[in-house]
Specification:
Strand order of the largest sheet: 1-2-3-4-5-7-6
Strand content: 25-35%
Order of helices and strands: EHHHEEEHEHEE
Largest sheet: 7 strands, mixed
Shape: globular
Distance between the termini: 32 Å
């Protein structure tokens, strides 16, 4: 074995994203079904996750205000992360990290780390020195981002509805200077 990971990290163009909406929607649904708090609640029909990629992500990728990276293996999307570049004129140095997703059966294999390393590299090459994100308080993602060097700014209580129940969860706001 040559030491290369069993997956590749790729940037999706708008055209490729359009062709891969079904597999991206399936990944998103699988993550929500596994309890991921990424803006959706159960039940989540396929049409809802397809609409997210088509109406919320695709326009930004097309306009080059959103970078979409995917991890794939054997033609299957197993992870994604997005970099939001549509910041106000007084924040050209900043970008937002969003929707770090790894398929539940593929976690703990270095996929999230590889996606974030590539995302941070791309951000730096675009002159973005400050990355911000939010994640559900208490999730393993908080430890993951902390391990990547992100620092907690604070916690907003009752920020979002839990995807699987009627309770409201807090969100942790984090940042990293590149």
């Amino acid at each position: 074995m040559s030491g290369t990971p069993p997956f590749a990290i790729l940037e999706l163009s708008a055209d490729t994203l359009e062709r891969r909406i079904d597999s991206l929607a399936e990944l998103l649904r699988d993550c929500v079904l596994d309890g991921a708090s990424i803006g959706f609640v159960l039940p989540i029909p396929a049409s809802t996750s397809e609409t997210f990629w088509r109406d919320r992500v695709l326009p930004g990728v097309r306009a080059r205000t959103r970078l979409l990276l995917v991890a794939e293996t054997a033609g299957s999307v197993i992870g994604t992360v997005q970099l939001g570049l549509d910041t106000p004129p007084n924040q050209p140095h900043r970008a937002d990290v969003a929707k770090l997703l790894v398929h539940p059966t593929r976690r703990r294999r270095g996929i999230a780390r590889a996606l974030m390393v590539e995302l941070e590299s791309r951000a730096a090459s675009l002159g973005r020195r400050l990355l911000t994100l939010d994640t559900r308080t208490g999730d393993p993602s908080v430890r993951l981002y902390t391990a990547f060097g992100y620092r907690t700014v604070g916690v907003i209580p009752g920020y979002c509805l839990d995807p699987t129940s009627e309770r409201f969860d807090s969100t942790t706001i984090m940042y990293k200077t590149l």
